[in-house]
Design a protein that fits this description.
It is a single chain. It is built from 11 helices and 9 strands. It is α+β, with helices and mostly antiparallel strands. It folds into 3 domains: 171 residues, no CATH class; 104 residues; 141 residues, Histidine kinase-like ATPase, C-terminal domain (Heat Shock Protein 90, 2-Layer Sandwich), CATH 3.30.565.10. It has a 5-stranded mixed beta sheet with strand order 5-6-7-9-8, with helices on one face. Strands 2-1-4-3 form a 4-stranded antiparallel beta sheet, covered by helices on one side. Strand 5, helix 10 and strand 6 form a beta-alpha-beta unit. Helix 6 packs across helix 11. The longest helix is centred in the middle third of the chain and has 72 residues. It is rod-shaped and about 195 Å long.
């Protein structure tokens, strides 16, 4: 059952209750009016006949009282709302008033007559040689009431049908935007975010349409943002894969060449030492040693580059050992700064994608703190709960910054960390203030952790 029909049925029910209430008031008022009219008519008739009886008694020459009453009643004819009967002493009916011809064409049903009949008791008078009986008869008034009630009933029915039709048509026209709204929601549910609603005349539907249009715009922006995040995540994966390949090539190819150069230089040095007395051998030995030293520097520099491109410990030992190694390296390079690392939970099952992103975030945070924060302590905490949620907390006691005044689009370190976290559907928060240090809080939920 749709909303239009439900509202129409509700209005119909309320209208029926109203009509029933009006009918009850009319019937009750009509019954009171009929009762009052019958009582008044009976009282007047009784007083009139009592006067005739008393006059007859006072004037015996008029004849017997029942004869006087008979002649008076015959001349009187019909009395409204009363049925008058005159009997002799033997109970023989001498006279009965003629029936009422008022609205004789009206034939109210018996239930209506029973409903409005006041059931007044008859009045009897004993006279000389007879008995007078006055019975209240409200049929004429009931017929009149039936005519009025019938007219009001048909008028009410016509009004009821007309009003229902108008209400049904009005509801259909007023609720027409609901169909458009439902169709729009259905299209949005199926993924069509280009759906827009027009301007509606009713303010309530206009607000709904405006809110729905804004929602689709937000969903479109969110979808584009999610696509950008997925693209960023894919680019980062390709970058990491290229770094891994480049690190492998540097280690395997360049490492072999550097090792060969160093081997040849050592061989030359040994030969020069063996023939030290020969002219020029001392210079050859010196140059060969220079080549060995340069080869060692190239080898060390290559290993540093390889470590920056792709930490080998991450593939071999896991995230925890890799973080310990990088923190140890930074600590050796910056002995004046205290760097602490606290690890809890099962970090070995975090997955390669999460591990490399956590490593890069810690690496970037340490670089930023060492370059700009002027901090004396850096605290790093990484924990994994039983439900697989990762929490990373990095805090320093440096000079901090007014974060609201910082153009984050120009600070690619923070922007890159945020993109990495959002690609994993995590939350990234930075809290900082001048001379109050900087805190980075990251949460990565388990259901978003790619394995």
């Amino acid at each position: 059952m749709n909303l239009r029909l439900r509202l129409n049925l509700l209005i119909t029910a309320l209208l029926l209750l109203f009509l029933l209430a009006v009918g009850y008031v009319i019937i009750k008022g009509t019954k009171s009016s009929i009762q009052e009219g019958v009582e008044s008519a009976t009282r007047v008739t009784t007083q009139l006949l009592d006067t005739v009886i008393i006059s007859s008694v006072q004037n015996p020459d008029w004849g017997y009282t029942h004869d006087v009453l008979k002649r008076f009643l015959q001349s009187l004819g019909h009395v409204r709302s009363n049925d008058i009967k005159l009997y002799n002493m033997q109970g023989v009916l001498l006279y009965q008033s003629p029936p009422s011809k008022y609205r004789a064409n009206q034939n109210p049903p018996q239930w209506f007559i029973d409903l409005l009949d006041p059931h007044e008791k008859p009045v009897a008078r004993l006279v000389r040689f007879g008995r007078l009986e006055i019975t209240p008869q409200p049929l004429g008034a009931i017929r009149e009431a039936w005519g009025k009630v019938s007219y009001l009933f048909w008028l009410g029915m016509a009004f009821f049908i007309l009003l229902n039709g108008v209400v049904y048509w009005t509801l259909g026209r007023s609720l027409k935007p609901l169909g458009m709204i439902l169709k729009a929601i259905n299209r949005i549910e199926k993924g069509d975010l280009t759906t827009r609603l027009p301007v509606f005349p009713l303010p309530e539907f206009e607000r709904i349409g405006h809110s729905l249009n804004r929602m689709t715009e937000s969903l479109t922006a969110e979808r584009q943002l999610e696509e950008n995040r997925q693209l960023t995540h894919l680019i980062q994966e390709h970058i990491e894969e290229e770094r891994r390949s480049l690190a492998r090539e540097l280690h395997d190819e360049l490492g072999q060449y550097v090792t060969a150069i160093k081997t040849f230089a050592v061989g030359i040095t040994n030969k020069a030492k063996a023939n030290i007395t020969s002219p020029g051998m001392a210079d050859i030995e010196t140059n060969a040693n220079v080549i060995v030293s340069a080869a060692n520097q190239i080898y060390d520099g290559m290993h540093n580059i390889v470590r920056q491109l792709r930490p080998g410990a991450l593939d071999n030992l896991g995230l925890a050992e890799t973080l310990r190694d990088v923190v140890s390296t930074y600590q050796e390079q910056n002995p004046q700064i205290k760097i602490s690392l606290e690890l809890t939970g099962d970090l070995y099952s975090s997955g390669e994608t999460v591990s490399i992103n956590i490593y890069r975030i810690v690496q970037e945070s340490l670089n930023n703190a060492l370059k700009y924060a002027q901090a004396s302590t850096i605290d790093i905490t990484l924990s994994k709960s039983r439900d697989g949620e990762l929490r990373l907390h990095i805090q320093d006691n440096g000079i901090g910054m007014n974060f609201e005044a910082v153009d984050q689009s120009q600070h690619f370190g923070l922007l890159g960390m945020r993109e990495r976290v959002q690609a994993l559907h995590g939350s990234f928060n930075v809290h900082s203030a001048p001379n109050q240090g900087t805190t980075i809080a990251i949460i990565i939920p388990n259901q978003s952790v790619p394995q």
